[in-house]
Amino acid sequence: MYQEYLRTHRPPLLAIWGKNDAGFLPAGAQAFRRDVPNAEIRLLDTGHFALETHSREIADAMRAFLAKHMMSKLPKQPKQPAQ
User: Fold this and answer.
1) Which residues neighbour 57 within 8 Å (Cβ) at sequence distance 6 or greater?
2) What is the pLDDT of residues 2-30, one digit of tens each?
3) Of the residues 9, 48, 54, 69, which is catalytic?
4) pLDDT tens, 27-47?
5) SS3 at position 42
6) Which residues contact 51 (CB under 8 A, 6 or more apart)?
7) Of the four listed, 4, 50, 56, 67, which is most buried by Cβ atoms within 10 Å?
8) Which residue ranges make up each domain of the chain?
9) Residue 75 and residue 24: Cα distance in Å, rounded?
10) DSSP class of residue 72?
């Protein structure tokens, strides 16, 4: 399913995981690299509810990732005339 899409298209991928999560083990995050070798994997010293304890770190990582991979794909905005 989605693995085929990842293998075929290899989109930019950021996986931020709690390395102490008992339900979603770190190996699950690392597995993305089988399909997207350049995937960015971040393992945080937290459990399943990473956003509750590491929201700023996660938000910063997401902003940096989007700036790096997506901002260059946005159409250029015309300059507004000075008023």
Assistant:
1) 44
2) 889 999 999 999 999 999 999 999 999 99
3) 48
4) 999 999 999 999 999 999 999
5) strand
6) 58
7) 50
8) 2-73
9) 37
10) G
Q: What is the pLDDT of residue 72?
A: 67
- Cα-to-chain-centroid distance, residue 68: 11
Long-range contact set of residues 26-34: C-beta below 8 Å, sequence gap at least 24: 32/6
Please report the pLDDT score of residue 2 as a whole number: 85
- pLDDT in the model for residue 20: 96
Cα separation values, 54 from 19, 43, 48, 51, Å: 12, 11, 11, 5
Amino acid at 13: L
Q: If residue 44 lies in a helix (H) or strand (E), which one and from where to where?
A: strand 40-44
State both tokens at 53: 């304890």
How far is residue 33's CA from residue 38's CA, in Å, rounded to a whole number?
A: 7
Identify whether 54 is a catalytic site residue.
no
Q: How many residues does the chain have?
A: 83
